[in-house]
């Protein structure tokens, strides 16, 4: 053997040398240059192996005791869940504070909408990029950077003195969130072995559902005692504690052979996703697809993403291996994720208005009504991996989608006097359904991606969530708006002529205009009837989309496995994990 390589037969004189020797041996064996017994395997690839070995020797101790990481794994998961929870929770908390913010900052309706949309736009546009950067530069590093930026932007948001400042700060919060979300799932893939990974991902998925429910509850409780900035300021101590725990517990991981950076692909992904999501958001706000800004942005985004796919297929170092989409399990899983978020968020969003306006519940009471959803999702998510091992991903995911469709179908029959138990049962069934869809689908996506590219897999998974959810709110929102406007047109005739058009935009604006004009009794009945008609249409369409997802799952996802099959992560070389 070349004298420049460390003599594997020699006994190192210190712990540092031992660690370096172990790492050198790992790299040499991995590259096929050294046999398990230490001999030279072949001359092919020796130059590449020698370069990696020399780099490993320069870097010094890098290997963490895998037993230590294994013993910490559930503590690590807890830190990752809290990191994700604070990011997702903040978006749902903000919805409760919008009216207070409007009064304090004298914000217009459009400015309030962009306080929400600036976050969503930046978040969705950068998810893929930060997933890629995490694989290259370190996932823990991206997680900590994202949390730090999120915490700083939260503090700025809390003390914003104008709508413009709030919108800008929210955009920076979106940057931080885009770094956090893919890193958490990618780290889970590194820390947990395949037999426990499904359960860990189930808990990760459940934390997203919990945040949707806890948001209104926490926001309502804070606003009863403090000013609106408290919904942002509460993030700061959580971020500080999270950063300390991440530095202590979470190991660093990255792709050991990242190859060259793909700036062209990264730029195309950012531009394409940003244009697409912007078009979707504007379509939802304007309740039309005929506006040039709406269809121009949407078609432009799709065109750029098509160019991105073309570019990646021809690149020697693609940011995204588009060949993954030829894998039917991967494609069916990401499609299912997008469709179920389309159906769920598109309906879930409008149920908030039903509970607060039609039923007259406070934000806190509304949040409590969603508790069965959170409880069911939390409980069933932890058992979904066991169910998949017993009955197969197709049966479990198909059953979950069937439950989602059933719950949405039930919401198509609600009215002003629907019993509370019926609503709670519908939310419970929906939570149980989502718990049996998202963990298996997410696990399938991550299993199809090589372990060293877990950040990219996580980013694709989360991007489909965001785009699917945004499409659901926009398209189903447009349906609701159209049905509501046609149904309430006669009722708003009693309002002053100058406010009729604006009052017919939504149930909220109608009731506010009626209250100012002193004609609530005359408008209330027809307005509620028109709104419920729109909700029924939205619920039935959501149920149809969920049913379509069942068809996708039935055709493309495999049945019960007859034996263990290693996933793509296990088929690839193991990553070197750093503390």
Automatic annotation (TrEMBL):
Coiled coil: none annotated. It comes from Jiangella rhizosphaerae. Keywords: Cell membrane, Membrane, Transmembrane, Transmembrane helix, Transport. GO terms for cellular component: plasma membrane. Residues 76-561 form the Major facilitator superfamily (MFS) profile domain. This is DHA2 family efflux MFS transporter permease subunit. It is found in: Cell membrane. Pfam families: MFS_1. It comes from the Bacteria.
């Amino acid at each position: 053997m070349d004298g420049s390589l460390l003599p594997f037969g020699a006994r190192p004189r210190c712990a540092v040398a031992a660690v370096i020797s172990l790492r050198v041996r790992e790299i040499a064996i991995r590259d096929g240059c050294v046999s398990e017994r230490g001999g030279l395997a072949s001359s092919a690839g020796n130059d590449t192996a020698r370069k990696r070995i020399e780099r490993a020797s320069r870097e010094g101790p890098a290997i963490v005791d895998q037993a230590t990481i294994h013993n910490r794994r559930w503590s690590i998961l807890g830190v990752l869940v809290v990191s994700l929870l604070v990011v997702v929770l903040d978006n749902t908390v903000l919805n409760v504070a919008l009216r207070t913010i409007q009064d304090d900052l004298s914000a217009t309706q459009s400015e309030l909408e962009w306080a929400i949309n600036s976050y969503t736009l930046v978040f969705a546009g950068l998810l893929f990029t930060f997933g890629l950067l995490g694989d290259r530069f370190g996932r823990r590093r991206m997680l900590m950077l994202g949390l730090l930026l999120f915490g700083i932007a939260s503090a700025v948001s809390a003390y914003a003195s104008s709508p413009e400042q709030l919108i800008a700060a929210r955009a920076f919060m979106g940057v931080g969130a885009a770094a956090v979300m893919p890193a958490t799932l990618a780290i889970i893939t590194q820390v947990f072995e395949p037999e426990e990974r499904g359960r860990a991902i189930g808990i990760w998925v459940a934390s997203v559902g919990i945040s949707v429910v806890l948001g209104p509850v926490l926001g309502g409780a804070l606003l009863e005692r403090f000013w609106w900035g408290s919904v942002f300021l509460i993030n700061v101590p959580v971020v500080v504690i999270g950063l300390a725990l991440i530095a202590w517990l979470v190991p660093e991981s990255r792709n050991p052979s990242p190859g060259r950076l793909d700036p062209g692909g990264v730029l195309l992904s950012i531009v394409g996703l940003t244009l697409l999501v912007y078009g979707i958001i504007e379509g939802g706000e304007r309740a039309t697809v005929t506006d040039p800004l709406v269809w121009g942005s949407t078609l432009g985004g799709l065109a750029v993403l098509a160019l991105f796919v073309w570019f990646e297929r021809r690149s020697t170092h693609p940011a995204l291996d588009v060949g993954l989409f030829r894998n039917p399990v991967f494609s069916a899983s990401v499609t299912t994720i997008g469709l179920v978020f389309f159906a769920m968020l598109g309906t879930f969003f409008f149920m908030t208005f039903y509970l607060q306006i039609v039923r007259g519940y406070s934000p806190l009471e509304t949040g409590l009504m969603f508790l069965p959803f959170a409880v069911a999702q939390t409980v069933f998510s932890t058992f979904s991996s066991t169910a998949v091992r017993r009955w197969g991903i197709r049966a479990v995911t198909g059953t979950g989608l069937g439950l989602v469709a059933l719950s949405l179908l039930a919401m198509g029959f609600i009215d002003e006097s629907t019993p509370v138990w019926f609503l709670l049962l519908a939310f419970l069934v929906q939570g149980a359904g989502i718990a049996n869809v998202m963990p298996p689908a997410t696990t399938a996506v991550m299993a199809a991606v090589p372990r060293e590219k877990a950040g990219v897999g996580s980013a694709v998974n989360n991007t489909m969530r965001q785009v699917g959810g945004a499409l659901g709110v926009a398209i189903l929102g447009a349906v609701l708006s159209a049905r509501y406007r046609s149904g309430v047109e006669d009722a708003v005739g009693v309002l002053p002529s100058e406010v009729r058009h604006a009052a017919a935009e939504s149930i909220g604006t109608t009731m506010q205009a009626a209250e100012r004009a002193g004609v609530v009794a005359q408008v209330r009945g027809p307005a509620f009837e028109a709104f419920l008609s729109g909700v029924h249409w939205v619920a039935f369409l959501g149920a149809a989309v969920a049913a379509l997802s069942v068809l996708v799952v039935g055709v493309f996802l495999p049945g019960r496995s007859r034996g263990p099959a290693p996933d793509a992560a296990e088929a690839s070389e193991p990553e070197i994990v750093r503390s």
